[in-house]
Amino acid sequence: MHYNMKNTSEDAEKKIASIIRKELKNENYDDSCWLKAFSKADGDEQKAKVLYIDLRTSDLKKEKQKEKLLEDSKTHSQMRCGRSFCNNAYKILSIPKTSIGIQKCEGCGNMLEEKVSEKNALDAIDNLKSKPINYSTKPTTKSISLDGVYFLNASKDLKIMFWGYFIGVNFLITLLMFAFGQNDGAQSLLGVLRIVWMIVGTIGVFKSADIYKKKKIKEGLEYPLATTAKVACIILTISSIGQSIT
Question: Which residues is 79 bridged to in the sheet?
């Protein structure tokens, strides 16, 4: 998770530099930062002072960001996209409360709908340099490999995903069903295979369509192909399931 806030102002930068300079001059260090710096420097005091500057600067900037967040809490809310396919899914944005329901995600163009608690926003500031925090705790799943690419991760262009994979493989299965004719065993197996493929293919096309839509939004263009591909997948999948049942 990344907390999106304007960089500390030039005056604040000068104040932070002044605080650290005085601490070094008077050897009045912040205990936590100094212990970390001294440990990383393997006991070398000069190296420890250099590391201390970086660690202390980071801590003071975070304190300023927290102060700013708390000051703005009456007029601003912390929001994020939260959609798994969006590159900015867990990026926290501080927006005016009047913009809730209006502000759109810069990553995918959808509305910012997920509100982040003040506690989680403060935790995000503390974890700026660590691995992004995913509060949704959604389980991860392995992707299905196809032709050396990860199909479910939509690593191919939408047209290739829809026409090449989704429609192409479905057409191939249909030809095999026609070729086996009256062979009931083969027909049943291919019917199940087609249903499984339609479901897997739909997932891949949906993800590819979302990526395509996001790119078009950034370019300021319409994205009818994304909608058409999704609708076509749903219709064809329902049709295949219906044919198998009957």
Answer: 93, 115
Query: 0.70 cut: is pTM over it?
Result: no
Instruction: Report how far residue 28's alpha carbon sits from residue 31's, in angstroms, rounded to the nearest whole number.
Output: 9
Six token digits for residue 237: 């999948």
Tell me the two tokens of residue 185. Answer: 């065993």
CA-atom Rg of the chain in angstroms: 27
Domain presence at residue 139: no
CA distance 231 to 161: 14
Last residue of a domain, one of 95, 126, 157: 126
Per residue in 76-127, pLDDT (tens digit) is 888 888 777 777 777 888 888 888 888 888 877 778 878 888 888 888 777 7
Is the domain of 60 the same as that of 96?
yes
Q: Are residues 36 and 108 in the same domain?
A: yes
> What are the distances in angstroms from CA 152 to CA 82, 127, 202?
19, 30, 9
* Average pLDDT score, the chain: 78
Q: Are 197 and 169 in contact (CB under 8 A)?
A: yes
Domain count, the chain: 2
Whole-angstrom Cα distance, residue 100 to residue 91?
A: 16
Q: Are strands 91-96 and 76-80 parallel, antiparallel or unpaired?
A: antiparallel
Q: Which domain holds residue 169?
A: 145-245
Q: Give 91-98 contacts, CB < 8 A, sequence gap 24+.
A: 91/1, 91/2, 91/4, 92/1, 92/2, 92/3, 92/4, 92/116, 92/121, 92/124, 93/4, 94/4, 94/5, 94/69, 94/121
